[in-house]
Design a protein that fits this description.
This protein is of the alpha+beta class. It has one domain: Transferase(Phosphotransferase), domain 1, CATH 1.10.510.10. Helix content is 28%, strand content 10%. It has three helices and four strands; from the N terminus they run αββββαα. Strands 1-4 form a two-stranded antiparallel sheet. Strands 2-3 form a two-stranded antiparallel ribbon. The chain is globular.
Length: 120
């Protein structure tokens, strides 16, 4: 979680909110030249793996870092994300604007899933 939170903090420091943090977008990458080994029970051995946050396809520049040089491919007010992993403001704008807190909400959901093994 620390590595993932650091990746999200780096994105936020660059003015980018991910908007779709979920297990499918958290990648475990083996060291170069080494395939991930799979144990007999089907579990992957993760020693030496690097964690990466992927799929910034729904990523957005947030208002403090908006820059005319970048093209926004999503319309303002669009509902984007994976419903089970969306923050309240992604569903209903009356809760506030989508921004860094949106990703923090998703990190909290991931942490809960890791600790309990269940979906909310």
């Amino acid at each position: 979680m620390r590595t993932l939170a650091t990746a999200v903090a780096h994105a936020h420091a660059s003015g980018i909110v991910h908007r779709d943090i979920k297990p499918a977008n958290v990648l475990l990458v083996p060291p170069p030249g080494q395939p991930a080994s799979v144990a007999s029970g089907g579990d992957m051995t993760i020693t030496g793996m690097t964690l990466k946050l992927g799929d910034f396809g729904l990523g957005k520049l947030f208002h403090d870092h908006a820059d005319e040089e970048f093209t926004q491919l999503t319309r303002t007010g669009s509902r984007l994300g994976t419903p089970a992993w969306m923050a309240p403001e992604q569903i209903d704008r009356s809760f506030g604007e989508v921004g860094p807190a949106t990703d923090i909400h998703a990190l909290g959901l991931l942490l809960d899933r890791l600790l309990t093994g269940r979906c909310l």
